[in-house]
Amino acid sequence: MVYLTMSFNTYRVLFVTPKFKAPLGAPFYFEEEQMYIRQAFDLVKMTAGQTGRNPAVGCIIVKNGVIIGIGAHLQEGSAHAEVQAIRMAGDATGATLYCTLEPCNHTGKTPPCTEAIIQAGIKKVVFAVRDTSLDDTGIRYLEAHGVEVVHAPDAAVSAFYDAFFISKEEKRPYVTLKLAATLDGKLADDFGNSKWLTNEASRQDVHRLRHQQDAVLVGRKTYAVDEPKLDARHVSEKVPIKVIISRTGDVTLHEADITSGQRIIVISPTAVRHAETLITQDFRPARLLELLYQAGISRLMVEGGSSVISEWINQDCFDEVVIYYAPKLLGGTLNNRFYHTEESRMTHLRLVDIQQFEDDVRLTYRKGQ
């Protein structure tokens, strides 16, 4: 995976047109629109996880059958994808703009993209996902200024934006529970030893997953014993915010964390030295999500031990579960199973992805039908 961190003014990217099979009987223009939308989506995948509360968006501008501009939203507060693409295109008069998300029509940290599109002389806009968090004035505004607007839905692109819409509409981070377990469901042996259950390929993939998060959360015990870095160093320079839960306030930051410059949040009933402390007496996961959203976090990965994982499942405070299964059996007592309850309860999940890393398997489940 390549991650984009530079301005698009500094280079151009050569796209290789992917093989794309349109639905049977679909007209040619459908295949062309979907092809460019998928190429814009490739840009989204390169920037996912680095745009803060803003959605990652990809954009391509085509004129006379030639791609003349590409763009992606690189980080919160920077130019949006449409503006980046227009800047690269130069003369975009009469061109068609393809973007993964409906262009914005409001002024926030940057001006509205609709104005930039109109001023550039673009004649047609094709987008994959409607931004339901905003009103529909953008489409009407473009059409009122003579721009043709086409909604070209794409299931893969739509699924990608689920996390953004959930976070924005429910005003909380989108939550991924991540764990690595043996085939008999153990996170560690009876003595708490867990390094390394999974193989190197799986651990590399965890770094890719962390790159997509704003923050990674662990409990005080996991932090004290494992001294986890919780970064994405194997795939990018991004360092997610480290979040530590301490119900007693009895947590001492490791020296490496104090000097690292990484943003560290401790959720505690009292202030903790060398850390940004969110003070609360209420440690229900739902309350913690409120605090973290207020702190600017929209995507959160929970990597705690069995107690933390079980509590977040039992409180129904998660959106997806990512399990890395190692081909091992630990046995021993029932301690350190990744999920336990005081009484039996059934939680139904939906399998959305399977990946294999040598002999390890990663399963991704989401809530809902």
From TrEMBL:
Pathway: Cofactor biosynthesis; riboflavin biosynthesis; 5-amino-6-(D-ribitylamino)uracil from GTP: step 2/4; Cofactor biosynthesis; riboflavin biosynthesis; 5-amino-6-(D-ribitylamino)uracil from GTP: step 3/4. NADP(+) binds at A180, W196, T222, D226. The keyword Oxidoreductase applies. Zn(2+) binds at H80, C104, C113. Substrate binds at S194, R210, L230, R233, E303. The keyword Cell division does not apply. Its EC number is 3.5.4.26, 1.1.1.193. Residues 31-141 form the CMP/dCMP-type deaminase domain. Keywords: Hydrolase, Metal-binding, Multifunctional enzyme, NADP, Oxidoreductase, Riboflavin biosynthesis, Zinc. The active site is at E82. SUPFAM superfamilies: Cytidine deaminase-like, Dihydrofolate reductase-like. Binds 1 zinc ion. It catalyses: 5-amino-6-(5-phospho-D-ribitylamino)uracil + NADP(+) = 5-amino-6-(5-phospho-D-ribosylamino)uracil + NADPH + H(+); 2,5-diamino-6-hydroxy-4-(5-phosphoribosylamino)-pyrimidine + H2O + H(+) = 5-amino-6-(5-phospho-D-ribosylamino)uracil + NH4(+). It holds the Pfam family RibD_C. GO terms for molecular function: 5-amino-6-(5-phosphoribosylamino)uracil reductase activity; diaminohydroxyphosphoribosylaminopyrimidine deaminase activity; metal ion binding. Its cofactor is Zn(2+). GO terms for biological process: riboflavin biosynthetic process. In the C-terminal section; belongs to the HTP reductase family. In the N-terminal section; belongs to the cytidine and deoxycytidylate deaminase family. Converts 2,5-diamino-6-(ribosylamino)-4(3h)-pyrimidinone 5'-phosphate into 5-amino-6-(ribosylamino)-2,4(1h,3h)-pyrimidinedione 5'-phosphate. This is Riboflavin biosynthesis protein RibD. The gene is ribD.
